[in-house]
């Protein structure tokens, strides 16, 4: 699984909190970004939660 954070991000930090900063982190603009190339199988559930709970729908799955 691959994901990206799109321009809808408002920097709320929900995804960062849900994944303990190991999948998402803030970029220089204070917005979230995915910091891994590929989501490990054991992290897929927590990333799915981050997608669900993102208030702006800024996290998208990327077609491989």
Summarize it.
The protein has 64 residues and is of the alpha+beta class.
Write the layout of secondary structure elements.
Layout: E1 3-5, H1 14-18, E2 24-26, E3 32-34, H2 44-53, E4 59-61
Antiparallel strand pairs: 1-4, 2-3
Description:
- The protein is α+β, with helices and mostly antiparallel strands and 64 residues long.
- The protein has one domain (3-61): Alpha-Beta Plaits (2-Layer Sandwich), CATH 3.30.70.20.
- The protein is 23% helix and 19% strand.
- It is built from two helices and four strands; from the N terminus they run βαββαβ.
- It has helices spanning 14-18, 44-53, and strands at 3-5, 24-26, 32-34, 59-61.
- The chain has a two-stranded antiparallel sheet with strand order 1-4. A two-stranded antiparallel ribbon has the order 2-3.
- Strand 2 and strand 3 (32-34) form a beta hairpin.
- It is globular and about 30 Å long.
- The N and C termini lie close together (8 Å).
- The model has no long low-confidence stretch (mean pLDDT 96).
List descriptors.
globular, single chain, 64 residues, 2 helices, alpha+beta, Alpha-Beta Plaits, two-stranded antiparallel ribbon
Radius of gyration using CA atoms only: 10 Å
Dominant shape: globular
In order across it, which strands form the biggest sheet?
1-4
Structural class label: alpha+beta
Query: From the structure provided, what is the oligomeric state, counting identical versus distinct chains?
Result: single chain
* CATH arch. level architecture: 2-Layer Sandwich
How would a textbook summarize the main sheet? 2 strands, antiparallel
State the helicity in percent bands.
10-25%
The amount of beta strand, in percent, is 15-25%
What is the H-and-E element order? EHEEHE
Level-1 CATH class name: Alpha Beta
Number of domains: 1
Give the low-confidence spans: none
Quote the distance from N terminus to C terminus: 8 Å
Q: List how many beta strands DSSP finds.
A: 4
